[in-house]
């Protein structure tokens, strides 16, 4: 299978059944007005392992459930990757435990060790209480961790899903930016991100946009500055997120675009389920605006 960006929608079996059996959350009086409430979160799940290094999906599912989020962006997600995550489809397993739909966007998709087994994949994912209408795995600049002598090059793993939240179109992007001290690759990734989000916004006028992820840089980092021209950092002023046991820097973000009002945001005190802490934001989506009448 090619590693080039491709459009796809991946639903776990549980999510697919829910699509048939369960309607989207009921609309409230507020939904019928000028705005729609939504709860959005991001969480780097460390391939299913906690800050103690122990793989425990039950513990992570409990942490995710406690967020009570409608949409969650996940980073460091294994799908049949190997022994560290017991060869499981971690994205699908978490979706099943939470009763949510899932879209997975691999950064790496490698041949299996043994012929006939599933491909070994690692990347980002979106969990959603709402049906996923479409999903795309975009390419951005990356410096591969799987090549002996990597050079920056376009590679997949910048996931996007399109939702309709009580009549409002929503584009959710999830990313994991480069971790290296040299910001050069992150600078290129930010430029790619802005270009892709602008193009997708033009293709669906009026869509409310979210960028969720582990940016591996603090809010004041110069390489992130261009992002804040179109997006707002919902978590400004919140506690640090990494490392989870005793955080010293804020590198995990819920960023929102035009037509999204941030009502509340929190960094839950979750020191054990991953090596990062999650971020969760209560927002409202404007019904009126460009392309929405």
Automatic annotation (TrEMBL):
Cited Pfam families: Exo_endo_phos (PF03372)
Spell out the InterPro entries in the cross-references. Answer: Endo/exonu/phosph_ase_sf (IPR036691), Endo/exonuclease/phosphatase (IPR005135), GPI-anchor_lipid_remodeler (IPR051916)
**Span of the secretion signal?**
1-29
- In this protein, which residues make up the domain named Endonuclease/exonuclease/phosphatase? 41-276
Question: Which molecular function terms from Gene Ontology are attached?
Answer: endonuclease activity
Alphabetized SUPFAM superfamilies for the sequence = DNase I-like
Q: Which UniProt keywords apply?
A: Endonuclease, Hydrolase, Nuclease, Signal
Q: Which PANTHER family match?
A: CALCOFLUOR WHITE HYPERSENSITIVE PROTEIN PRECURSOR, ENDONUCLEASE_EXONUCLEASE_PHOSPHATASE DOMAIN-CONTAINING PROTEIN
This protein is called: Endonuclease/exonuclease/phosphatase family protein
Q: Which organism is it from?
A: Streptomyces salinarius
